[in-house]
Amino acid sequence: EVQKHSVHTLVFRSLKRTHDMFVADNAKPIPLDEESHKVKMAVKLRTEYGSVLHMPTLKENLREKGGPNTGDPYGHKQYSGNQGQELEYLITGTHPYPPGPGVALTADTKVQRMPSESAAQSLAVALPASQSRLDANRTAAGVGDIYRHAGGSERSQPPGMSVAMVEAGGNKNSALMAKKAPTMPKPQWHPPWKLYRVISGHLGWVRCIAVEPGNQWFVTGSADRTIKIWDLASGKLKLSLTGHISTVRGVIVSARSPYLFSCGEDKQVKCWDLEYNKVIRHYHGHLSAVYGLDLHPTIDVLVTCSRDSTARIWDVRTKASVHTLSGHTNAVATVKCQAAEPQIITGSHDTTIRLWDLVAGKTRVTLTNHKKSVRAVVLHPRHYTFASGSPDNIKQWKFPDGNFIQNLSGHNAIINTLAVNSDGVLVSGADNGTMHLWDWRTGYNFQRVHAAVQPGSLDSESGIFACVFDQSESRLLTAEADKTIKVYKEDDTATEETHPVSWKPEIIKRKRF
């Protein structure tokens, strides 16, 4: 009786059989055919060096090799000369020519003799330094060297090594120098961060968080439609604000006035007066959920971004919509402001990042490197750089033109939030509840955190929606899907000896895309 197997088992066995059959030849290089290699190199010499074959050749090469034919493995014609004479350069043109006017064209006069090498060097010494160096380099290598070295460097050098032909002054000696592949510099040591407080009170996912400029309290917005203000030192609830009729997606506290701004999935953007704890202004205009907002650091301007594929610039005092920044083709997930140009940066679900001209209300640069939605953007507090987070990679960029710096790979999840402090610690928080900490300069991932969910929550309710450093940058606050706010601090007891950097100077593999 034939034993029945599942399709999966049969397919696996077939794969294994195929693998065993072909594994002997797997990844073996094809043996080099000498004849075809000679033909290939002859063609390569003619196509790549045909324009310089008429240039001078050193007769010394011929003397070393013992004849005109032995010096060239590829069967090319070498220019011969008298063996006993002092070294000379011979020049042949496209046709024979005499050395001067009125000279009969004979076997002796059709080739023009150049000064000997010793005479040329003595002449070079008398020239100015720059001129002599140029002339020496110009006559240092002849067609013989080209013949000898053509294709040789590719065959003889291992991968990752490049050969530099360095001509020293007027000498003919060529030094072979191996260039090192670039390696990642050693990252700065950062103490690990540890969880020291969990704050609960919200009845829904905590979607956004912001710390006030005085560092006394912080504010959170939640899917329970409330905004809560908490004491930073003790973690106690100070105040709850109600008014939104859907999830609160963004909060920010003004450093220029006693105002708190909030936005939500109810399309509303509100300005709260913290002296009266009341809404004093509404900013109407978005056609769909408002996903994020930011305040300009030096002028009274508010910028919001929305699922309607636009970002809007508002005058804080007059409530007027100054500009509608249109250009994205999908929801705009994040927006950031800075005093320097470009003053507004947006990241969108259309996978692009746009840098905007605030005055004109138009795009300056569009960055299309990401392959998936860009949900998070963060500006470095000291450097003129920024980072963007997407499920494919975290990428670092230079202002003002958005030049690519490097990829930070390894956080393979939907990245909802990024935060960075002046010490160069970059934090990325993801939808699966993981948090990675990176060294900004080198892109080294020095810590990975996955905090347990609040007791009573489902394991699936593990997600970080927002994170922010407090003003002293000694505390890290995260807003999470288990309805809590988690507070982290640096481990004071850790040293570089107890927590060494497990770093290897590996060869950098930086991709542009």
TrEMBL record:
Report which superkingdom the organism of origin falls in: Eukaryota
Segments annotated as WD repeats? 199-240, 241-282, 283-324, 325-366, 408-448
Per UniProt, the keywords (alphabetical) are: Repeat, WD repeat
Database matches in PROSITE patterns: WD_REPEATS_1 (PS00678), WD_REPEATS_2 (PS50082), WD_REPEATS_REGION (PS50294)
Indicate the segments annotated as coiled coil, or none if absent: none
The record's GO CC annotations read: catalytic step 2 spliceosome; precatalytic spliceosome; Prp19 complex
Q: Entry's SUPFAM superfamilies? A: WD40 repeat-like
Family statement drawn from the similarity comment of this UniProt entry: Belongs to the WD repeat PRL1/PRL2 family.
The record describes the protein's role as:
Involved in pre-mRNA splicing as component of the spliceosome. Component of the PRP19-CDC5L complex that forms an integral part of the spliceosome and is required for activating pre-mRNA splicing. As a component of the minor spliceosome, involved in the splicing of U12-type introns in pre-mRNAs.
Complex and partners: Identified in the spliceosome C complex. Component of the PRP19-CDC5L splicing complex composed of a core complex comprising a homotetramer of PRPF19, CDC5L, PLRG1 and BCAS2, and at least three less stably associated proteins CTNNBL1, CWC15 and HSPA8. Interacts (via its WD40 repeat domain) directly with CDC5L (via its C-terminal); the interaction is required for mRNA splicing but not for spliceosome assembly. Component of the minor spliceosome, which splices U12-type introns. Within this complex, interacts with CRIPT. Also interacts directly in the complex with BCAS2 and PRPF19.
Q: What is this protein called?
A: Pleiotropic regulator 1
